[in-house]
């Protein structure tokens, strides 16, 4: 806890205050800080800075899930090689406690504003800090279990003695903080405050925290209350929602805004295709690609509509909105990873150019043939930067959280089907009542709906940092993260082993199991696909993260999680 201790001791003197996602404007260091609305608001703004949310943005948890392929490399988590010195755990621990300490400082300093700021405004500002503290503590107990817990100031001696508090005790405070935020936060702000947390955000985050801990009634009620606010709705076009040009959508419940004008953007080169100038370091996995059902609602190994020669045809529309369809225009050129296609058309010049998106031409082209489309637009290839908003919570998640909680409670009614079908119908671009235009759910069995709901979450939130958490809480990591990552044969091997050039991707649908997880072993045994890298998730320890070793060393009261 050395870093945590230093932070606790020094934070009141070093409390930087910023606008959202821009450089600090001022620092509050005097004992009279937090004495007016401006000072409190500036301090609160730091809780919206991306460093406190970094674990949940920039695809960081996707890297640890089965949605991700990165050539023949693998993240330490699915590789099973994490230990108590794992940097990702250390960074998460430190940044989250930074946020908690800052929120505590604000909440414990608001008396300075008494008589100078209206009481209602103080309650609102306290509600923002309470919400953030709840979010951060909920994050800690999900990943670490029992954690050090404090709501006031700590001196160095106290910090050295601080052990781990039972997560159920921490959760009591989490729910209390969420309720305080829900009571005092407004439903909406004026147009100048679109980035700030609202009552709906507090309800949605409470639902997520409860869902992750299996508190189904709390999750259901919070999600339903958010729905009942009637201020959110699904964006009409799924693919358009994730583009940088889409701002302030009614689907967005909580987001961190980015802007080129404010100097807040993100390096995107690793995540788009090579012919337009990207690096194509990482791709959606074959497992994710297989998760998208056919338009009849059936998995690809059961549906008569699936054709391995045209694997995007007759698929849930989110498939081609998330993954670039072969033979279609993408960032000004035709995307075609087929090893026989050494030239592709540049749509702007109308000339054929070298196809750097096939490994026949470029060794580092996608190893599985897939490329990310979700959120990718022309601004990515303009200067290798993008400034799309970081969406932490959106309304589709609220709907599916409500449905999941009801399913787990086995209180299945029309509202459950309506919630899931609303999300699915939006993907097809049709009204939810037009049940012949999309595969509307009609099942009422808990087992079947659980299966459908879980896969619906996967394809709806692909590459949005939701899949990893779902694998942990559903205890599916021990199944999904022990299977190898597969990809296309090397070009020379492919041309020798696969006679039909139209079956270069893979020759048949893999078997899809009861968890909607694909098994490529039959294709591998036939020699038509290759193993890129093995996974080795350790179910005996990895459902909880390790407490950073640096914290354990200096605090005898801080005990490590099992088997680390």
Labels describing this entry:
single chain, two-stranded antiparallel ribbon, mainly alpha, two-stranded antiparallel sheet, disordered N terminus, 21 helices, Serine Threonine Protein Phosphatase 5, Tetratricopeptide repeat
Task: Describe the fold and architecture.
The longest helix is centred in the first third of the chain and has 26 residues, at 119-144. Helix 14 packs antiparallel against helix 15 (414-428). The protein has a domain at 1-166 and 547-564: Serine Threonine Protein Phosphatase 5, Tetratricopeptide repeat, CATH 1.25.40.390. The chain has 21 helices and 16 strands. The protein has 564 residues and is mainly alpha-helical. A hairpin with a 5-residue loop joins strand 14 and strand 15. Mean pLDDT is 90; it is low at 1-30. The radius of gyration is 24 Å and the shape is globular. The strands form eight sheets. The protein has a two-stranded antiparallel sheet with strand order 1-2. A two-stranded antiparallel ribbon has the order 3-6. It has helices at residues 2-14, 37-45, 76-79, 87-107, 119-144, 156-161, 167-184, 199-212, 216-228, 238-241, 286-291, 317-322, 378-383, 395-408, 414-428, 446-460, 467-473, 477-480, 491-497, 521-525, 549-554; strands at 15-17, 26-28, 68-69, 252-256, 266-267, 283-284, 328-330, 333-335, 343-346, 351-354, 385-386, 390-394, 485-487, 511-512, 518-519, 530-533. 39% of the residues lie in helices and 9% in strands.
